[in-house]
Amino acid sequence: MMLDPRALRIDPSFVERRILDFISEQVSAAGLKGGIVAVSGGLDSSVTLALSAKALGGNRVRALMMPEQGLTSESDITDALEVAEMFGVTCDVVDITPVIRAIYSALPNYDPQDLISAGNVKARVRMIINYYYANRLGKMVIGSSNKSELLTGYFTKYGDGAADLFPLADLYKTQVRQLARHLGLPRRIIEKVPTAGLWPGQSDEGELGVKYELLDLILLGWERGMSVESVAEELGVGVELVRGVFERVRRSRHKRVFPLILRLSSNKSELGSGSSWGGEGGRS
Questions:
Q1: Do 204 and 178 contact (CB within 8 A), yes or no?
Q2: Edge-to-edge strand order for the sheet containing 35-39?
Q3: N or C: which end of the chain has fewer CB within 10 A?
Q4: Long-range CB contact pairs, 170-173, < 8 A, 24+
Q5: What pLDDT, in 10s, does the model give residues 134-186?
């Protein structure tokens, strides 16, 4: 079978070494003093914080926990602070509630029933705070998006999708869990229900309509250039489910590319390459 779960197994020690070198080299090459990591108390940000601290030293990393009143749980704040303490990182808690309320009140067409638009404001407010700290402290923003999220477009463009580095971007969600166990993160964080925390009751798998264990195998089939029908047959799932995942990848491509530039000259530069993360992948 091409899509056996064993195909997603990683060598966590090897992956850890590669990521530590990547973070260290990129921060050094940029001439910056360290890293900024937004933390939520969840799996991905906890792994990113742990790796950043191991790569740079905890004293060169600043963690930011940015809760919203009435939505972010105390347990998530506690978990984020615990992981920061585990790896010797200072974690600032910045309440975003006054900021998002001010933005909502300033928008003539604000609609609280439009959960996605309102939720994306929160993600972009957190991005602004990340980069304020990065500018103020001379550090690089280290993002925590994984391959499953990036390929399906399950992130906010210029929100959590905005960072200088994505150390986990070539790891599926299930692979990030493997790495988390290797790093010794608390079990409750590893097994926590994944959520972006943008509105009450939100969960990744609820929005995506599929468990990560299955989603990652479907995406692996897409990466290997398999057809919708072949993936569905091999995994024993419906064709419509697989087609829906492939469509998510296709429709979200604009979120993974730099803004396109109209070429008006023959001069060569890095501008307007339109390069994307994730390539073209499988057939729909």
A1: no
A2: 90-93, 61-65, 35-39, 140-141
A3: N
A4: 171/10, 171/15, 171/146, 171/147, 172/8, 172/146, 172/147, 172/148, 172/212, 172/216, 172/219, 172/220, 173/43, 173/44, 173/146, 173/147, 173/148, 173/149, 173/212, 173/215, 173/216
A5: 999 999 999 999 999 999 999 999 999 999 999 999 999 999 999 999 999 99
Summarised one tens digit per residue, pLDDT across range 147-157 is: 999 999 999 99
Q: In the beta sheet, which residues pair with residue 92?
A: 64
The pLDDT of residue 279: 45
CB neighbour class for 24 (10 Å; exposed up to 12, middle 13-18, buried from 19): middle
- Flag whether pLDDT at 266 surpasses 90: no
Q: What's the whole-model pTM score? A: 0.92
For the chain, which domains are there?
A: 5-201 (3.40.50.620)
Confidence of residue 282 (pLDDT cuts 50, 70, 90): very low
With left for phi above 0 and alpha for psi between -120 and 50, is residue 259 left, alpha or beta?
beta
Q: How far is CA 174 from CA 73, 89, 107, 211, 257, in A?
A: 24, 26, 39, 10, 25
**For residue 276, what pLDDT band results from cuts at 50, 70 and 90?**
low
- Residue identified by tokens 């993974």 is 256
Residue 132 is encoded by which pair of tokens? 């304020």
Q: Which residue has the tokens 């604009």?
A: 254
